[in-house]
Specification:
The chain has one domain: MetI-like fold, CATH 1.10.3720. It contains 10 helices and no strands. With about 230 residues, the protein is mainly alpha-helical. It is globular, with a radius of gyration of 20 Å.
């Protein structure tokens, strides 16, 4: 049971770190795609979605060549004492990258839902882009941000291909629930561990989705209530 507890804690640590680091980048990219009108927008959108459709092994190989011990970014970060190759930080990087498309998409839809007329009215009233983002765009996009966080988190929980290719399956360091299940499947008389870990994985995913649905509904109801009060006023 101690091994299972450690595996679950490591999985949560990797998934949460990956999503936390990816989230600010995802918000920026989603805002650019929702509000921007520039050459190469379709290409940027395609590149963001690439980890979702590209074979995970290829994603892992790219990470290994870029952030591994011999990769140019890997050597750069090593100067500051940050290593990714065969470390839990590398597993978090892989999880965050694979989750990025699922985080960006609902956030982008949230930003696109902002009424352009309302944004123009705030601009005319003298509010700069940053204040409009804080006071208008961000609150309206909040349900999308929350949905993106949960979708990204559940994706990060189950990440396998890119992780095992980039950082291998090292017990206590990079071995998440998915990697542990794969490892136990190769062993005789380990079916009970596989069943327990698979059940935990399903349970965590269901719990995350239920919480997401509940919080998204609460936030949406709150936003609708504020808009109704403003219309009455």
């Amino acid at each position: 049971m101690t091994d299972i507890f450690d595996i679950v804690l490591l999985t949560l640590k990797i998934a949460l770190t990956g999503v936390a680091v990816t989230l600010p980048i995802a918000i920026i990219l989603a805002y650019i795609l929702a509000k921007g009108n520039f050459a190469g927008k379709s290409l940027l959108s395609a590149l963001i979605m690439l980890p979702l459709v590209m074979p995970p092994v290829v994603t892992g190989l790219i990470l290994l060549e870029t952030f591994g011990p011999n990769g140019f970014l890997g050597r750069f970060f090593a100067i500051f004492g940050v290593e990714f190759g065969f470390r839990w930080t590398g597993a978090a990087l892989a999880a965050g990258l694979v989750a990025l498309p699922l985080i960006v998409r609902p956030i982008r839809q949230g930003f696109e839902a902002v009424d352009p007329d309302l944004e123009e009215a705030l601009e005319i009233s003298g509010l700069g882009r940053w204040r409009r983002f804080i006071l208008l765009d961000l609150p309206i996009a909040l349900p999308g941000i929350l949905a993106g966080i949960i979708l990204g988190f559940t994706k990060a929980l189950g990440e396998f291909g890119a992780t095992i290719t980039f950082v291998a399956s090292i017990p206590g360091e990079t071995q998440t629930i998915s990697l542990a299940i794969y490892s136990f499947l190769q062993q005789a008389n380990a079916s009970q561990m596989v069943l327990v870990l698979a059940s935990l994985s399903i349970g965590l995913s269901i719990f995350a989705v239920v919480i997401s649905e509940y919080l998204t509904q609460k936030i949406s109801d709150s936003l609708r209530g504020k808009r109704g009060a403003e219309n009455v006023a």
